Amino acid sequence: MTEHPSPSMSIIVQKYGGSSLATADRIRNAARRISATRQRGAHVIVVVSAMGDTTDELLDLARQVSDDPPAREMDLLLSTGETVSAALMAMALGSLGLHSVALTGGQAGIRTDTIYSRARITDVNPQRLRQELDGGAIPIVTGFQGVTDTDDVTTLGRGGSDTSAVALAAAVKAERCEIYTDVEGIYTADPRMVPEARRLGQVSYEEMLELAQLGARVMHPRAVELGELYDMPILVASSFVDAPGTLITRAEHVEVRKNVRGLAHDTDVGKITVTRVPDRPGVAHSIFAPLASAGISVDTIVQNAGLDSHTDISFTVTRGDVARALPLVQSCAHEMEAGGVSSSENLAKVSIVGTGMQSAPGFAARMFGCLSDSGINIEMITTSDIRITCIIERDRVKEALGVLHRAFELDRDA
Amino acid sequence: MTEHPSPSMSIIVQKYGGSSLATADRIRNAARRISATRQRGAHVIVVVSAMGDTTDELLDLARQVSDDPPAREMDLLLSTGETVSAALMAMALGSLGLHSVALTGGQAGIRTDTIYSRARITDVNPQRLRQELDGGAIPIVTGFQGVTDTDDVTTLGRGGSDTSAVALAAAVKAERCEIYTDVEGIYTADPRMVPEARRLGQVSYEEMLELAQLGARVMHPRAVELGELYDMPILVASSFVDAPGTLITRAEHVEVRKNVRGLAHDTDVGKITVTRVPDRPGVAHSIFAPLASAGISVDTIVQNAGLDSHTDISFTVTRGDVARALPLVQSCAHEMEAGGVSSSENLAKVSIVGTGMQSAPGFAARMFGCLSDSGINIEMITTSDIRITCIIERDRVKEALGVLHRAFELDRDA
C-alpha cells in the first residue's frame, strides 16, 4: 500500500538523463526507483531528459527541411523530446499504482529569458508543483525547457535538464536534488584512464565545478553553480545500479582528510605561441580581438616577459580551432613585427583539484616533481584557488594521471 | 519578393493531414503551396496534423510502459506529434524566405473542456493569431489539440485536426477553410467501387454530413457540423496535385440541378434479429439497455409489428460487435419468451444522398426498383430527410453502387 504523503514531508527532486530513459524497459526501471523513494516516505518531483537519441533524430528532421532553422522553432521542436519522456514516465508510474502527472517546463512554472537555444531561467513559480504534491501526485517535469513571458517555449542549452532539476529543487526547498545518469558518481580520476580510480563520497561545489570544467562530463558547470547559489545538495548516481553515488555539497560538509580530491584531464587542447612580441601596451588585445570576433574561444594564456623588451605569448584553444586561429594570429604577428608563430595540436591538460589545496603549500611543487621524475615535459601551467593545471603532450596523459593518482594517494580510501 | 499582407487582407486557413506531411519532402511541398497562397495576397493560417505514422509510434511507446495509460498523459504524449509537424513546417517556410511561427493549440488560443482524448473546443481566443498576422507572420497551429482552463493539454479525438482548422477559421472570420488531404475531393461514389465516379464541385454541409457518416472518410462529421454552424466554406482538396477539390458550403450556394448528389456505402455492418417479441411496452428497452451498458453502439433499428401481438425487431451493429452482442440479446430474448435470435455479419449499407431529395418524391421507389431489377435483396431500409439507405448483402455492394450510379445519372456532369 502506498502511503499518502503529507504536505510536511521532505521533497526529493530526481533527474533522469537520456540514457536512463532510452527504452521502455529503462523507463520502467527508473519508475521503480521513483516508487521506492516515495515509499521511503518522501515527496518526489521527477525531471526527465529526452529518450536516448530523440534529440539527434529531431535535429536531423530539422536539417531535412531547412539549412538554417530559426531558433524559436528549433526550441519548440526539441522540447517535444522531453514531453514524450515525461508522459511515458507518468504512465509507467501509473501502472505501478502511483498517481503521477506529467508537466511541461511552462506548466511547472519555469520562466526564462527569450534567448532561444540557450535560455536562462529567470523565475520558477512552484504553485502547480505544490498543488500536485498536496494532491498526492508525483509531478514529472520536462527538463531542458521553459517558457518566456509570452508563453513561447525555450530550451536551456547544454546541461539544461540538470539545471532544470536544481532550479526546481531550490524553488520547492527540496531536501536534495538527485541526478541519475550512466556513471556511478564522481571519481578521483577518469576510470578509463586510471583503473584504480575511486568514487568520491562527497565533493564540494567548487571542486565539482573545476572537475566539470576540466572534462568530467558528469554534470554541467551551470547546474553546479546553481546548486552552490541555493546551497542545494546534489547527489550524482547511476540509474542502472544501486550504489551510493557522490554528494555535491558545501565545502564545510565535505570531510577534507586529503587535500587533493581528484584529477581531471582534457585531451582536446591545441596551443599557439607568438614569439618575440614587442612588449608594449595593446599587443595582447591585437592578438585576441580577431579570435573573439571569429568566435574562437581562448582558454589558458601565458605571457613570458623577456629581457629585451620582447615577450612570448602562448595560449590554448580546442584542437579543432587551431587551423582557423592560425592565419588570424599570423596576420597579426606580421603586422606587429613579432618573431614568429608556432602551434601544436597534440596537447592535453592534466589537473589536480581540491578545496584543501588553497590553505596548504607544496602541491604545485609535488605535482611538477612527479611529472618531471617521469620525464613528462610541462608546456604551460595555470592555477586557480583549488586547482593546478599542467599542459603536457597528449600521448603522456594516461601516464601522468597514473603517477599523480599514486603520488597524491588518491587510490587510498580517504 | 513577398508582399507584406495588410490587416485588411482576407484570411485563408489551410489544414494539412498526416499523409501530406509524412516526409521532409512532403512538408517542403506543402510549404510551397502555402507560399503560393500567400503570394496571391491572402493571410494564411496553417493547421497541421502529426507526420504520417507518428501517432501510431507514440501509441506503441505508451503501450510498452503501461497497459492502461491515463488519458491526460496520453493526450500530452500524442500532442507532441503535431508540435513536431508545426515546428518543421515553420522551418520549411522560413527556408522559403517566409516569416512563420509555430504555435501549439494552447498558444493559438484553443480552449477545451477537460474530457481527455475527446475534448470539445469551448472557446478560441484569436488574439495571438491576429498579432502574428499583423506582424506579417504565417502562424502554423498544431491541430487536434487544445488546453483546459488549467493549461493542461487535451486532444480532440477523431477528426480533431479538421475541427481545429474550422474552429480557427471561424474565430478569425476567415474567408475559407481548406482541408488538404490525400484525395482530390468528394466523389459521387467511392472511385474504387465505381470507376465512373465523378468529383463534385460543391456539396452542402448536410450532404457532406450524410456522406461522412456513411463511410466517406474524407472529413469527420464534427468538423462539417462546425462549418455549418459558423457558415464557414470548407474546401477539400489534394495536397499532391493541383486540382480544384470540392467546396462544402450552404445548400443555397450549391447548384442543385440533380437531386441525388452522391452514393455512400459502408461494408462494416452486422445485423441481429429477434423474432416474435411480445408486443408490449418496454421490450425495446430490455433489448437495448444491456447493449448500451456493454458499450455496443446500435445503428439502424427496424421494428415490424405483426398481426398477433408479436413483433420482429432487427438492428445493425458493426460486424466486430455481433459476437459480443449476441449472448446479451439471446439472454434477453429468452427472458421475454421471444421466438428466437438470428444474426448476419455479411451485410452492407448503400445510400443515396442529396439535399434536393427532400422536396421531390419518387427517389425511394427508383432506388428500390433499381436494386430489385438487379436481383439484389433489401434486408432493411432507413431514411433521413436527404438520404435513403438500404441494407443489402455485402458481396453485392459494388454491383449496387454501379447500377445506382447509372440510374441517377451521377456519371454525367451536372
Write the layout of secondary structure elements.
The structure is a homodimer of 414-residue chains.
Chain A lengths: L10 E6 L7 H16 L3 E6 L5 H12 L5 H24 L5 E4 L6 E3 L8 E4 L2 H8 L3 E5 L2 E3 L5 E3 L4 H12 L4 E6 L20 E3 H9 L7 H9 L4 E5 L7 E4 L12 E17 L4 H11 L7 E5 L4 E8 L1 H17 L4 E14 L9 H11 L6 E5 L2 E7 L3 H11 L7
Parallel strand pairs in A: 1-2, 1-9, 2-6, 3-6, 9-11, 10-12
Antiparallel strand pairs in A: 4-5, 7-8, 11-12, 13-15, 13-16, 14-15, 16-18, 17-18
Helix pairs in contact in A: 1-3, 2-3, 5-7, 6-7, 8-9, 10-11
Helix content of chain A: 25-40%
Number of domains of chain A: 2
What is the tally of beta strands of chain A? 18
Q: Biggest sheet of chain A: strands side by side, in what order? A: 3-6-2-1-9-11-12-10
CATH class of the largest domain in chain A, named Alpha Beta
**Biggest interface pair, counts:** A-B, 41 and 41 residues
> How many DSSP H or I helices of chain A?
11
Global structural class of chain A: alpha/beta
Shape of chain A: globular
Kindly report the CATH topology of the largest domain in chain A. Answer: Carbamate kinase
